[in-house]
Amino acid sequence: MKFGTKAVHAGVEPDPTTGAIMTPIYQTSTYVQESPGKHKGYEYARTQNPTRDALQDSLAALENGKYGLCYATGLAATDTIMKTLRPGDEVICTNDMYGGTYRLFKKVFEPFGIKFIFVPMDEVATIESQVNDKTKMIWVETPTNPLMNVIDVKAVASIAKKHNILLTVDNTFATPYLQNPLDLGADIVMHSVTKYLGGHSDTVMGAIITNHKELYEKFKFLQNAAGGTPGPQDCFLVLRGIKTLHLRMRQHCENGKAVAEYLEAHPLVGKVYYPGLESHRGYKIASEQMRDFGGMVSFTLKDDRVATAMKTLENFEVFALAESLGGVESLCGHPATMTHASIPREERLKAGLGDSLIRLSVGIEDQEDLITDLRQAIESASVKEGAIG
Ligand SMILES: *Cc1c(COP(=O)(O)O)cnc(C)c1O
After folding, report:
1. Taking the domain 3-242, which CATH number applies?
2. Whose CA is nearest to atom 4 of ligand 1?
Protein backbone atom coordinates (compact mmCIF):
# COMPACT_ATOMS: atom_id res chain seq x y z
CA MET A 1 0.00 0.00 0.00
CA LYS A 2 1.20 3.52 -0.75
CA PHE A 3 1.47 6.23 1.87
CA GLY A 4 -1.84 8.07 1.36
CA THR A 5 -3.80 4.82 1.40
CA LYS A 6 -2.06 3.72 4.59
CA ALA A 7 -2.74 7.13 6.18
CA VAL A 8 -6.45 6.69 5.54
CA HIS A 9 -6.82 2.96 6.24
CA ALA A 10 -3.98 1.39 8.24
CA GLY A 11 -4.97 0.05 11.65
CA VAL A 12 -8.60 1.03 11.20
CA GLU A 13 -11.22 -1.71 10.84
CA PRO A 14 -14.99 -1.17 10.92
CA ASP A 15 -16.18 -1.63 14.50
CA PRO A 16 -17.12 -5.32 14.92
CA THR A 17 -20.30 -4.66 16.93
CA THR A 18 -21.93 -2.00 14.70
CA GLY A 19 -19.89 -1.60 11.54
CA ALA A 20 -19.06 2.03 12.48
CA ILE A 21 -16.46 3.08 9.93
CA MET A 22 -14.63 5.28 12.47
CA THR A 23 -12.91 3.61 15.40
CA PRO A 24 -15.10 4.37 18.46
CA ILE A 25 -13.68 6.22 21.44
CA TYR A 26 -13.59 3.42 23.99
CA GLN A 27 -14.00 5.72 26.97
CA THR A 28 -13.71 3.08 29.67
CA SER A 29 -11.29 2.28 32.45
CA THR A 30 -12.11 -1.42 32.71
CA TYR A 31 -13.71 -4.35 30.85
CA VAL A 32 -16.19 -6.89 32.19
CA GLN A 33 -14.89 -10.46 32.43
CA GLU A 34 -16.99 -13.55 31.88
CA SER A 35 -15.27 -15.42 34.68
CA PRO A 36 -12.04 -14.51 36.50
CA GLY A 37 -9.26 -14.24 33.89
CA LYS A 38 -11.66 -15.04 31.04
CA HIS A 39 -12.02 -11.90 28.94
CA LYS A 40 -11.91 -10.55 25.37
CA GLY A 41 -8.26 -9.52 25.50
CA TYR A 42 -8.97 -6.32 27.42
CA GLU A 43 -8.65 -6.08 31.21
CA TYR A 44 -7.78 -2.55 32.27
CA ALA A 45 -7.38 0.59 30.17
CA ARG A 46 -3.81 1.41 31.17
CA THR A 47 -2.86 -1.98 29.76
CA GLN A 48 -5.09 -2.14 26.65
CA ASN A 49 -7.56 0.09 24.87
CA PRO A 50 -9.05 -0.59 21.40
CA THR A 51 -8.88 3.06 20.25
CA ARG A 52 -5.21 3.13 21.22
CA ASP A 53 -4.62 -0.22 19.48
CA ALA A 54 -5.94 1.16 16.19
CA LEU A 55 -3.69 4.20 16.43
CA GLN A 56 -0.64 2.10 17.34
CA ASP A 57 -1.17 -0.09 14.27
CA SER A 58 -1.64 2.97 12.08
CA LEU A 59 1.61 4.56 13.32
CA ALA A 60 3.57 1.33 12.85
CA ALA A 61 2.30 1.06 9.26
CA LEU A 62 3.23 4.66 8.44
CA GLU A 63 6.81 4.11 9.65
CA ASN A 64 7.13 0.73 7.90
CA GLY A 65 7.57 -0.83 11.33
CA LYS A 66 6.16 -3.96 12.91
CA TYR A 67 5.34 -2.49 16.30
CA GLY A 68 3.91 0.85 17.40
CA LEU A 69 3.22 2.15 20.91
CA CYS A 70 1.67 5.41 22.08
CA TYR A 71 2.47 7.44 25.17
CA ALA A 72 0.90 10.42 26.90
CA THR A 73 3.43 12.87 25.37
CA GLY A 74 6.52 12.83 23.21
CA LEU A 75 8.62 13.15 26.35
CA ALA A 76 6.82 10.18 27.95
CA ALA A 77 7.87 8.14 24.88
CA THR A 78 11.48 9.31 25.25
CA ASP A 79 11.33 8.61 29.00
CA THR A 80 10.27 5.05 28.16
CA ILE A 81 13.16 4.54 25.75
CA MET A 82 15.64 5.81 28.35
CA LYS A 83 14.24 3.50 31.04
CA THR A 84 15.54 0.51 29.05
CA LEU A 85 19.06 1.78 29.87
CA ARG A 86 20.93 1.20 33.15
CA PRO A 87 23.29 3.26 35.38
CA GLY A 88 26.71 3.47 33.76
CA ASP A 89 25.32 3.38 30.21
CA GLU A 90 26.22 6.17 27.81
CA VAL A 91 24.20 7.87 25.09
CA ILE A 92 25.65 9.97 22.27
CA CYS A 93 23.18 12.69 21.27
CA THR A 94 22.63 15.39 18.67
CA ASN A 95 23.88 18.64 20.24
CA ASP A 96 21.07 20.96 19.07
CA MET A 97 18.20 18.71 20.10
CA TYR A 98 14.72 19.68 21.31
CA GLY A 99 15.07 21.54 24.63
CA GLY A 100 12.69 19.29 26.55
CA THR A 101 14.62 16.18 25.52
CA TYR A 102 17.83 17.84 26.68
CA ARG A 103 16.20 18.68 30.04
CA LEU A 104 14.91 15.11 30.47
CA PHE A 105 18.35 13.66 29.76
CA LYS A 106 20.35 16.11 31.91
CA LYS A 107 17.97 16.74 34.82
CA VAL A 108 16.16 13.42 35.15
CA PHE A 109 18.32 10.60 33.78
CA GLU A 110 21.83 11.91 34.44
CA PRO A 111 21.22 11.87 38.23
CA PHE A 112 20.35 8.16 37.82
CA GLY A 113 23.82 7.53 36.41
CA ILE A 114 23.22 7.57 32.66
CA LYS A 115 25.75 9.72 30.81
CA PHE A 116 24.84 11.86 27.79
CA ILE A 117 27.45 13.12 25.37
CA PHE A 118 26.32 15.90 23.03
CA VAL A 119 28.07 16.18 19.68
CA PRO A 120 27.44 17.97 16.41
CA MET A 121 26.42 15.10 14.18
CA ASP A 122 26.72 16.57 10.72
CA GLU A 123 30.27 15.18 10.86
CA VAL A 124 29.56 11.52 11.60
CA ALA A 125 33.23 10.95 12.45
CA THR A 126 32.72 12.92 15.67
CA ILE A 127 30.24 10.26 16.78
CA GLU A 128 32.64 7.37 16.40
CA SER A 129 35.33 9.16 18.41
CA GLN A 130 32.95 9.14 21.43
CA VAL A 131 32.06 5.44 21.26
CA ASN A 132 33.32 3.19 24.03
CA ASP A 133 32.14 -0.07 25.56
CA LYS A 134 29.59 1.78 27.73
CA THR A 135 27.87 3.38 24.73
CA LYS A 136 24.43 1.83 24.45
CA MET A 137 22.51 4.27 22.29
CA ILE A 138 22.89 7.01 19.71
CA TRP A 139 20.11 9.61 19.76
CA VAL A 140 19.54 11.45 16.52
CA GLU A 141 17.11 14.24 15.73
CA THR A 142 16.94 15.23 12.05
CA PRO A 143 16.29 17.83 10.82
CA THR A 144 17.30 19.35 14.14
CA ASN A 145 15.33 21.87 16.07
CA PRO A 146 15.60 24.80 15.38
CA LEU A 147 18.69 24.98 13.14
CA MET A 148 17.51 22.35 10.64
CA ASN A 149 20.83 20.54 10.63
CA VAL A 150 20.49 17.34 8.67
CA ILE A 151 22.07 14.16 9.97
CA ASP A 152 22.92 11.29 7.66
CA VAL A 153 20.87 8.51 9.28
CA LYS A 154 22.36 5.76 7.08
CA ALA A 155 25.90 6.80 8.00
CA VAL A 156 25.09 6.95 11.72
CA ALA A 157 23.31 3.58 11.46
CA SER A 158 26.43 1.97 10.02
CA ILE A 159 28.47 3.21 13.01
CA ALA A 160 25.77 1.98 15.39
CA LYS A 161 25.67 -1.46 13.76
CA LYS A 162 29.46 -1.77 13.73
CA HIS A 163 29.62 -1.19 17.49
CA ASN A 164 26.38 -2.96 18.35
CA ILE A 165 24.69 0.22 19.62
CA LEU A 166 20.99 1.03 19.28
CA LEU A 167 20.08 3.98 17.09
CA THR A 168 17.01 6.05 17.96
CA VAL A 169 15.74 8.77 15.63
CA ASP A 170 13.36 11.50 16.77
CA ASN A 171 11.37 11.79 13.52
CA THR A 172 9.01 14.54 14.73
CA PHE A 173 10.13 17.25 12.27
CA ALA A 174 10.23 15.06 9.17
CA THR A 175 7.19 12.85 9.88
CA PRO A 176 6.87 9.42 8.24
CA TYR A 177 5.60 11.18 5.12
CA LEU A 178 9.05 12.64 4.48
CA GLN A 179 11.44 10.15 6.09
CA ASN A 180 11.38 6.58 7.42
CA PRO A 181 14.34 6.07 9.77
CA LEU A 182 13.74 2.30 10.17
CA ASP A 183 14.29 1.92 6.41
CA LEU A 184 17.54 3.88 6.79
CA GLY A 185 18.85 1.50 9.47
CA ALA A 186 17.55 2.97 12.75
CA ASP A 187 16.33 0.60 15.49
CA ILE A 188 13.80 2.89 17.14
CA VAL A 189 11.71 5.80 15.88
CA MET A 190 10.33 8.28 18.37
CA HIS A 191 7.63 10.88 17.62
CA SER A 192 6.09 13.82 19.32
CA VAL A 193 2.66 12.98 17.87
CA THR A 194 1.59 16.38 19.24
CA LYS A 195 3.07 17.98 16.12
CA TYR A 196 2.44 16.95 12.49
CA LEU A 197 0.88 13.54 13.16
CA GLY A 198 -1.91 15.02 15.27
CA GLY A 199 -1.60 18.08 13.07
CA HIS A 200 -4.35 20.26 14.53
CA SER A 201 -2.78 21.62 17.75
CA ASP A 202 -5.41 19.92 19.88
CA THR A 203 -3.56 17.00 21.52
CA VAL A 204 -0.26 16.09 23.15
CA MET A 205 1.01 12.57 22.56
CA GLY A 206 4.13 10.52 21.83
CA ALA A 207 4.94 7.31 20.00
CA ILE A 208 7.63 4.67 19.57
CA ILE A 209 7.94 2.43 16.52
CA THR A 210 10.39 -0.47 16.12
CA ASN A 211 10.94 -3.72 14.26
CA HIS A 212 12.71 -5.44 17.20
CA LYS A 213 10.37 -7.74 19.08
CA GLU A 214 12.51 -7.70 22.22
CA LEU A 215 12.58 -3.89 22.36
CA TYR A 216 8.86 -3.76 21.68
CA GLU A 217 8.23 -6.07 24.65
CA LYS A 218 10.29 -3.78 26.90
CA PHE A 219 8.48 -0.64 25.71
CA LYS A 220 5.10 -2.31 26.07
CA PHE A 221 5.99 -3.50 29.56
CA LEU A 222 6.96 0.06 30.50
CA GLN A 223 3.81 1.47 28.92
CA ASN A 224 1.80 -0.53 31.42
CA ALA A 225 4.26 -0.65 34.33
CA ALA A 226 5.11 3.07 34.34
CA GLY A 227 1.71 4.12 33.01
CA GLY A 228 2.45 6.99 30.64
CA THR A 229 -0.45 6.15 28.33
CA PRO A 230 -2.65 8.52 26.29
CA GLY A 231 -6.44 8.60 26.72
CA PRO A 232 -8.86 7.27 24.08
CA GLN A 233 -10.19 10.72 23.06
CA ASP A 234 -6.67 11.81 22.19
CA CYS A 235 -6.08 8.58 20.26
CA PHE A 236 -9.25 9.25 18.28
CA LEU A 237 -8.16 12.81 17.45
CA VAL A 238 -4.80 11.58 16.21
CA LEU A 239 -6.39 8.79 14.15
CA ARG A 240 -8.48 11.50 12.55
CA GLY A 241 -5.48 13.76 12.04
CA ILE A 242 -3.42 11.04 10.37
CA LYS A 243 -6.03 10.55 7.64
CA THR A 244 -4.93 13.85 6.07
CA LEU A 245 -1.24 13.68 6.94
CA HIS A 246 -0.13 13.29 3.32
CA LEU A 247 -2.33 16.18 2.13
CA ARG A 248 -1.25 18.47 4.93
CA MET A 249 2.43 17.63 4.48
CA ARG A 250 2.32 18.46 0.77
CA GLN A 251 1.03 21.93 1.61
CA HIS A 252 3.45 22.39 4.55
CA CYS A 253 6.33 21.55 2.19
CA GLU A 254 5.13 23.83 -0.58
CA ASN A 255 4.55 26.75 1.80
CA GLY A 256 7.78 26.06 3.70
CA LYS A 257 9.80 26.28 0.51
CA ALA A 258 8.05 29.48 -0.61
CA VAL A 259 8.66 31.12 2.77
CA ALA A 260 12.31 30.04 2.86
CA GLU A 261 12.92 31.37 -0.66
CA TYR A 262 11.17 34.64 0.14
CA LEU A 263 13.26 35.11 3.28
CA GLU A 264 16.51 34.24 1.56
CA ALA A 265 15.93 36.99 -1.02
CA HIS A 266 14.87 39.61 1.55
CA PRO A 267 17.48 42.35 2.11
CA LEU A 268 16.82 42.60 5.88
CA VAL A 269 17.15 38.87 6.52
CA GLY A 270 20.46 37.39 7.68
CA LYS A 271 20.65 33.61 7.55
CA VAL A 272 17.84 31.24 6.56
CA TYR A 273 17.81 27.66 7.83
CA TYR A 274 15.77 25.36 5.61
CA PRO A 275 17.05 22.00 4.32
CA GLY A 276 15.34 22.56 0.96
CA LEU A 277 17.54 25.57 0.10
CA GLU A 278 20.59 24.70 -1.96
CA SER A 279 22.54 27.12 0.25
CA HIS A 280 21.80 24.92 3.31
CA ARG A 281 24.66 22.68 4.35
CA GLY A 282 22.36 19.70 4.82
CA TYR A 283 20.71 20.07 1.39
CA LYS A 284 22.46 17.13 -0.25
CA ILE A 285 21.77 14.58 2.49
CA ALA A 286 18.23 15.90 2.95
CA SER A 287 17.63 15.38 -0.78
CA GLU A 288 18.76 11.78 -0.41
CA GLN A 289 17.01 10.69 2.77
CA MET A 290 13.88 12.87 2.73
CA ARG A 291 11.11 12.96 0.12
CA ASP A 292 10.64 16.71 0.52
CA PHE A 293 11.78 19.33 3.04
CA GLY A 294 8.93 20.05 5.43
CA GLY A 295 7.43 23.21 6.86
CA MET A 296 9.96 24.30 9.49
CA VAL A 297 12.04 27.38 8.70
CA SER A 298 14.33 29.38 10.98
CA PHE A 299 16.00 32.70 10.22
CA THR A 300 17.93 35.59 11.65
CA LEU A 301 17.74 39.27 10.76
CA LYS A 302 20.79 41.20 9.58
CA ASP A 303 20.08 43.51 12.54
CA ASP A 304 20.64 40.77 15.07
CA ARG A 305 19.61 42.65 18.21
CA VAL A 306 17.19 40.70 20.38
CA ALA A 307 14.86 43.74 20.47
CA THR A 308 14.39 43.66 16.70
CA ALA A 309 13.63 39.93 16.74
CA MET A 310 11.13 40.47 19.58
CA LYS A 311 9.45 43.34 17.72
CA THR A 312 9.19 41.20 14.57
CA LEU A 313 7.54 38.41 16.54
CA GLU A 314 5.03 40.83 18.09
CA ASN A 315 4.20 42.19 14.61
CA PHE A 316 2.99 38.93 13.09
CA GLU A 317 -0.73 38.78 12.37
CA VAL A 318 -1.24 35.44 10.58
CA PHE A 319 1.65 33.62 12.26
CA ALA A 320 0.67 33.12 15.92
CA LEU A 321 3.35 33.58 18.56
CA ALA A 322 3.32 30.22 20.31
CA GLU A 323 5.40 27.20 21.21
CA SER A 324 4.89 23.90 19.39
CA LEU A 325 4.75 23.25 15.65
CA GLY A 326 3.26 21.03 12.98
CA GLY A 327 -0.36 22.18 13.18
CA VAL A 328 -2.43 23.49 10.26
CA GLU A 329 -1.92 27.08 11.43
CA SER A 330 1.37 28.93 11.07
CA LEU A 331 3.28 29.64 14.26
CA CYS A 332 6.33 31.74 15.06
CA GLY A 333 8.59 31.51 18.05
CA HIS A 334 11.78 32.67 19.69
CA PRO A 335 13.73 29.52 20.61
CA ALA A 336 16.13 31.26 22.99
CA THR A 337 13.33 32.33 25.35
CA MET A 338 10.66 29.75 24.48
CA THR A 339 11.29 26.17 23.30
CA HIS A 340 15.01 26.16 24.12
CA ALA A 341 15.02 28.20 27.33
CA SER A 342 15.88 25.03 29.29
CA ILE A 343 19.25 24.78 27.53
CA PRO A 344 21.97 26.90 29.22
CA ARG A 345 22.84 29.97 27.08
CA GLU A 346 26.46 28.87 26.69
CA GLU A 347 25.41 25.45 25.34
CA ARG A 348 22.92 27.15 23.06
CA LEU A 349 25.42 29.55 21.57
CA LYS A 350 27.94 26.71 21.16
CA ALA A 351 25.35 24.89 19.07
CA GLY A 352 24.91 28.02 16.93
CA LEU A 353 21.50 28.92 18.34
CA GLY A 354 21.71 32.69 18.75
CA ASP A 355 19.58 35.07 20.81
CA SER A 356 17.88 36.61 17.77
CA LEU A 357 16.91 33.45 15.91
CA ILE A 358 13.23 33.22 14.84
CA ARG A 359 11.60 29.87 14.15
CA LEU A 360 8.56 29.40 11.92
CA SER A 361 6.22 26.46 11.72
CA VAL A 362 4.72 27.18 8.32
CA GLY A 363 1.08 26.08 8.20
CA ILE A 364 -1.25 25.26 5.34
CA GLU A 365 -2.80 28.71 4.82
CA ASP A 366 -2.57 30.52 1.47
CA GLN A 367 0.98 31.34 0.55
CA GLU A 368 0.33 34.99 -0.38
CA ASP A 369 -1.06 35.73 3.08
CA LEU A 370 1.95 34.17 4.78
CA ILE A 371 4.43 36.11 2.63
CA THR A 372 2.53 39.38 3.17
CA ASP A 373 2.60 38.78 6.92
CA LEU A 374 6.33 38.07 6.91
CA ARG A 375 7.01 41.21 4.89
CA GLN A 376 5.09 43.52 7.19
CA ALA A 377 6.42 41.92 10.40
CA ILE A 378 10.06 42.15 9.33
CA GLU A 379 9.93 45.54 7.66
CA SER A 380 8.00 47.43 10.31
CA ALA A 381 10.17 45.98 13.11
CA SER A 382 13.30 47.15 11.38
CA VAL A 383 11.85 50.64 10.83
CA LYS A 384 10.90 50.86 14.54
CA GLU A 385 14.27 49.67 15.74
CA GLY A 386 16.05 52.05 13.39
CA ALA A 387 17.71 49.48 11.17
CA ILE A 388 16.21 51.03 8.06
CA GLY A 389 14.41 54.21 6.99
C1 LIG B 1 7.72 18.67 20.87
C2 LIG B 1 8.90 17.80 20.64
C3 LIG B 1 9.24 16.78 21.54
C4 LIG B 1 8.47 16.55 22.83
O5 LIG B 1 7.20 16.13 22.60
P6 LIG B 1 5.94 16.47 23.58
O7 LIG B 1 4.81 15.85 22.87
O8 LIG B 1 5.86 17.95 23.67
O9 LIG B 1 6.23 15.85 24.89
C10 LIG B 1 10.33 15.99 21.22
N11 LIG B 1 11.05 16.18 20.10
C12 LIG B 1 10.76 17.16 19.22
C13 LIG B 1 11.59 17.31 17.99
C14 LIG B 1 9.68 18.00 19.45
O15 LIG B 1 9.41 18.98 18.58
Report:
1. 3.40.640.10
2. 74
